[in-house]
Amino acid sequence: MAFKPSQEFAIMSKKREKEAYATPFLAGLALAAAALAGRYGVQAWQAFKARPPKPRIRKFYEGGFQPTMTKREAALILGIRENATADKVKEAHRRVMVANHPDAGGSHYLASKINEAKDVMLGKTRGNESPF
């Protein structure tokens, strides 16, 4: 079946008409998708900013040792509260001492301070017992 040139032009113009309608439709679809993605991104960012802050790195006490150990300093050394029970003090002493024992490569000085901290927390100290 052969078409006359005028008929071929009419067929081609109808194809172009359909293509002309498809282009704005696809552009609108892309714009709607971008708007939804932007909305989701804004909501995710707001949720991210609203979350409670979490400590990433545990801060260490930057001060040195005082001439006579206080209960506060002893609690900082053992990593417990000042009003901890005797069982908690003994448990914390054991945990810290295992990590810093001189036989396992730890310092004699730190081991003596850990022992002094335990004594201060348990009320067994008579003043400055540290040989250092």
Task: Tell me briefly what this model is.
The protein is built from four helices and no strands. It has 132 residues and is an all-alpha fold. It folds into two domains: 1-52; 71-122, Helix Hairpins.
Mean of residue pLDDT values: 81
Shape: rod-shaped
SS-based structural class? mainly alpha
Query: Stretches where pLDDT falls below 50 for ≥5 residues?
Result: none
Description:
Keywords: Membrane, Mitochondrion, Mitochondrion inner membrane, Transmembrane, Transmembrane helix. Its main location: mitochondrion. By secondary structure, this protein is mainly α. It folds into two domains: 1-52; 71-122, Helix Hairpins (Orthogonal Bundle). Helix content is 64%, strand content 0%. The model has no long low-confidence stretch (mean pLDDT 81).
Spell out the key features of this protein.
rod-shaped; 4 helices; about 130 residues; single chain
What is the strand and helix layout of this fold?
Layout (H helix, E strand, L loop, with lengths): L4 H46 L20 H8 L7 H15 L7 H15 L10
Helix pairs in contact: 2-4, 3-4
